[in-house]
Amino acid sequence: MQATVERTDRATISDIIVVDADIHINDTPAALAPYCEEPWRKSLEILAETPSRYLDIPGFSPTLKLDPPIPGGHANRSVHTPAEMRAELTAIGVDIGVLFPDNLLLFAPLPNIEYAVALSHAYNRWLTAEWLDEEGLYGALLACPQDPVDSAREIERYAANDKVVAVYLPTAGVNPLWGHRTYDPIFAAAEAADLPVLLHSVTLVSPAFPCQLDQFENHFGRQMLSHSFAMMANLTSLIHTGVPARFPKLRVGFTEAGIAWVPYMMWRMDKYYQEYRRMIPFLEKRPSEYMKERMWFATQPIEEPDDPKDLVRMIDMIGADRVLFASDWPHHDFDHPRALLKLPMPIETKRKIMGENALELFGIPKPVGKIAGVA
Amino acid sequence: MPEHVVGPVAEFPPGSQRLVRLGRIEVGVFNVDGVFYALPNVCPHQFGPLCEGGVTGATACSAATGWKFAWEREGEVVTCPWHGVEFDITTGRSLVAPDRLKVRTYPVVVEDGQVKVRL
Ligand code: FES
Prior knowledge:
The complex is a heterodimer of chains A (375) and B (119).
Chain A: H1 2-13, E1 19-25, H2 29-32, H3 40-49, H4 82-91, E2 96-101, H5 113-131, E3 137-142, H6 148-158, E4 164-170, H7 184-193, E5 197-200, H8 219-240, H9 243-246, E6 252-254, H10 261-276, H11 287-294, E7 295-298, H12 308-318, E8 323-324, H13 338-341, H14 347-362
Parallel strand pairs in A: 1-2, 2-3, 3-4, 4-5, 5-6, 6-7, 7-8
Helix pairs in contact in A: 6-7, 10-11
Chain B: E1 3-8, E2 17-22, E3 25-32, E4 35-40, E5 55-60, E6 70-79, E7 86-88, E8 108-111, E9 114-118
FE2/S2 (inorganic) cluster is lined by residues 43, 45-48, 50, 80, 82-83, 85 of chain B.
């Protein structure tokens, strides 16, 4: 049974272009320091010498780690060079990937505005200078919610770079949520540059809604809600201030919350749109229609129901054109492309979800053949 | 049932965990307190390299422990390095879903000072 599954997968993966909407590069203070403006470069140089833990560097990736360590579990992985990333993606059958940071997933709660701006510049310089020459690696610019006007200039600065294909909106702990009008310059710049914006969260305990996860006794509880609540809250925020109506060409992607929450939000928002339209008259159609038109949803961590057909139905409800494969490589809950490829779906649907949708969304030219070769 | 000699018993001391390739398949050989076990190095979840994971005990908490955390099965649990699913080395069954998420176990014998795995 297992052998059969593997054989089918190999046959399938060998001719399907796999585009991965969410992979992570290890953005240490030491790596970013040379790209950072003074005096904040000095801060990064000090942090580079300070003992730090994974996704938990004071003044850089601030979070509260609340759990006692328990033996067992699996190691945290990180990727430090483009060549390493290329080799690892090839090993799992991914041809093309869109890069996100590790530590700067925790960027939004940094309160020092000038430092945050300098960090965002440094990350974008480092990303574009060191990572994007490697075949199949594309970048998402880091947006700086702490200074949306500067962030808009940053988007303009990189708009012509063919390997910059999106704008990453740091979502964990962002306050106010992304629908607030203060962020309009970022959306205007992204729309003008024809770059989709991608929301990405991470588990974080912070006073910013919906990250007040302090009352959960262990990480399981926090992990259940961190990404999914962040996506639901920010989707609601974007809709309730009319972002998709005010920016009619803006495309928005949601990552790392799986996809099963999406139909629920479509139906729930449509229901209350009927009741409360008078409060949100800028919407010209039902929220689900905006979602089906210009919002994309990345699969990881893909739900694993007992009956895989349930998941296929879920994908149909969202629309197979709006679902993007994502692995989240190299993080602890990454999905192998097989997790999607083994679903009972027509091959055309698999092609879309595994790669074609993303190529179109990101404007990436279709490679002539597999970059990842045949594993 | 083809039998494969995987090496002299001295190379598999108690507490050891070794990967061996037997024809087309890779097998993890574990010595748990003097008793040998062998499992395929393929996790039934997303096919990660199960036997490359760490070997530890596992937490437990039930009416039997008075609903207090206990530490059990020291040295009998391997954790898949991909997504952390724990497997009982002695049975091949996962702790989270013993009947649904499990791997087979291969018989291991020690004869003439050699460790042999039967596929
Ligand atoms: S592949 Fe082993 S836990 Fe997922």
